[in-house]
């Protein structure tokens, strides 16, 4: 089948939205690291709207830090792809044109550095997932990670986001080019400040290896480079072959990698861009002084509930979020989870949690998305600290029992153990899989094993309420092991009599 491309755009059906701007006149202004489905459903769509509004200096150069799959799919399509916005009422198709070119870092790190040092590049955005920030259990940079040690030894051919950012900033400073703004779009707490701290740590390690005459980089990164925090929100399920076939039939053209998403989207950004930025606020982006309250609400209410739905859903045999959320016990659990998490949010920030959770309930019920629970379950050891553990500790500090929050951690442990048994072997993955496998093989008593998992993942490290949280999790884990999620939920008075779980 003929592929989607600049040459074939005019042959698309009239109901498909297409770029109305001249793509040949667009100049790159943003380099994006981690050009996956979420970026293409979210930031790239916002930038597409800015380009259509005449801001033609903000085209995107996409960079894959690992796999060539996205480049291989989209390069023959001139970077074009279809964004399919789906809800229960139907589907709307839009072709996005904001990605001008795609690079694969392992194939040509020099090309990536050239894009990052180009004076036209004024913003670098990232969606590389939590695990790619290479944090140690204490939250600092894992200086012993093999990719970090590689980048310190080979600054001109880095593998990590830290290595690319540090080398590009060093080259820009040497050339007299102002630094770009670094805009983190991943689900990290205070993501801009977190990445800033990690990059300073990396720069200090790099400075320690530098020649005596070299200018130190850490102080420059600390004082001269802007790292605004942001909060992003849009549900983006993995694209399936059935999605590709359906989109191709509707377009009359092949699209190797369309993106499925929901109508809802949100982006809240701290407005600190010394080198300039697109007028995102014209298209629904909220520019603020402090993103913290919005970020906490999203992490603890949306992402926290998503993790709970994922792990309890997997253990209950539900393949997608809408099916799990339609389970009356899981639905009741989510309401109770929100009731525990909401008091941990800032109470003076004007957050409308009632409206927000009502909107989340509608989004979780979207039957058209088929958002797989296994997809959400990936990388739990990296996601749960900010989604669940932080809320649970805040609840304990306030003297409130985090009964539902702690069940999510227990369900994660149980779901990890269930792989290769009641769940497929590689149904979802985690950076700690090898270490977790070794731990599970020891068949420790539940309380001892829970403590070992906390140690391994760095959950609640050095927190004075850590042992109390471990005890809550271990109690839930006993119930899950004895009678699955139904027994654990029954112990909370959900879906059965509490006495049956005692």
TrEMBL record:
What molecular functions are annotated in GO for this chain? oxidoreductase activity
Q: What class of enzyme is it?
A: oxidoreductase
Q: Which EC number applies?
A: 1.1.1.-
Domain Mannitol dehydrogenase C-terminal residue range list: 290-477
Q: Does the keyword Oxidoreductase apply?
A: yes
Keywords of the record? NAD, Oxidoreductase
Pfam families given in the database record? Mannitol_dh, Mannitol_dh_C
Q: Which InterPro entries does the record associate with it?
A: 6-PGluconate_DH-like_C_sf, 6PGD_dom2, Mannitol_DH, Mannitol_DH/Oxidoreductase, Mannitol_DH_C, Mannitol_DH_CS, Mannitol_DH_N, NAD(P)-bd_dom_sf
The answer to whether UniProt assigns keyword NAD to this entry is yes
Protein name, UniProt field: Mannitol dehydrogenase family protein
């Amino acid at each position: 089948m003929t592929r989607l491309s600049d040459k074939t755009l005019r042959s698309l059906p009239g109901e498909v939205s297409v770029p109305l701007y001249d793509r040949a006149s667009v100049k790159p202004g943003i380099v994006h690291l981690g050009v996956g489905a979420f970026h293409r459903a979210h930031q790239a769509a916002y930038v597409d709207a800015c380009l259509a509004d005449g801001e033609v200096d903000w085209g995107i150069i996409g960079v894959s830090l690992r796999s060539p799959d996205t480049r291989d799919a989209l390069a023959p399509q001139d970077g074009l792809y279809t964004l399919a916005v789906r809800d229960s009422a139907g589907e709307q198709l839009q072709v996005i044109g904001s990605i001008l070119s795609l690079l694969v870092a392992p194939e040509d790190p020099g090309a990536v550095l050239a894009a990052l040092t180009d004076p036209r590049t004024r913003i670098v955005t990232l969606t590389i997932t939590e695990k790619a920030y290479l944090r140690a259990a204490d939250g600092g940079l894992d200086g012993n990670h093999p990719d970090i040690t590689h980048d310190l030894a080979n600054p001109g051919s880095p593998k990590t986001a830290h290595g690319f950012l540090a080398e590009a900033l060093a080259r820009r400073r040497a050339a007299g080019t102002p630094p770009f703004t670094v805009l983190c779009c991943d689900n990290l707490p205070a993501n801009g400040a977190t990445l800033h701290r990690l990059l300073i740590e990396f720069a200090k390690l790099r400075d320690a290896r530098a020649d005596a005459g070299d200018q130190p980089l850490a102080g420059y990164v600390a004082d001269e480079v802007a790292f605004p925090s942001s909060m992003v929100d849009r549900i983006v399920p993995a694209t399936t072959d059935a999605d590709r076939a359906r989109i191709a039939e509707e377009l009359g053209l092949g699209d190797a990698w369309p993106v499925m998403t929901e109508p809802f989207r949100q982006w809240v950004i701290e407005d600190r861009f010394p080198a300039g930025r697109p007028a995102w606020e014209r298209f629904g982006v909220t520019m603020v002084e402090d993103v913290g309250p919005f970020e906490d609400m999203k992490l603890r209410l949306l992402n926290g509930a998503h993790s709970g739905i994922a792990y309890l859903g997997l253990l209950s045999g539900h393949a997608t979020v809408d099916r799990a959320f339609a389970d009356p016990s899981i639905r009741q659990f989510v309401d109770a989870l929100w009731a525990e998490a909401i008091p941990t949010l800032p109470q003076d920030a004007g957050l409308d949690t009632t409206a927000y959770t009502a909107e989340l309930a509608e989004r979780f019920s979207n039957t058209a998305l088929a958002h797989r629970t296994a997809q959400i379950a990936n990388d739990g050891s990296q996601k749960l600290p900010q989604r669940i553990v932080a809320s649970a500790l805040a609840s304990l500090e306030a003297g409130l029992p985090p009964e539902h929050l702690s069940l999510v951690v227990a369900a994660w442990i149980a779901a990890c153990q269930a792989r290769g048994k009641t769940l497929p072997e590689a149904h979802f993955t985690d950076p700690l899989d090898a270490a977790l496998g070794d731990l599970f093989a020891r068949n420790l008593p539940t309380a001892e094993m829970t403590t070992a998992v906390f140690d391994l993942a760095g959950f609640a490290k050095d927190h004075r309420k850590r042992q109390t949280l471990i005890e809550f999790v271990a109690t839930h884990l006993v119930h899950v092991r004895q009678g699955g999620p139904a027994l654990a939920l029954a112990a909370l008075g959900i879906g059965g009599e509490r006495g049956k779980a005692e």
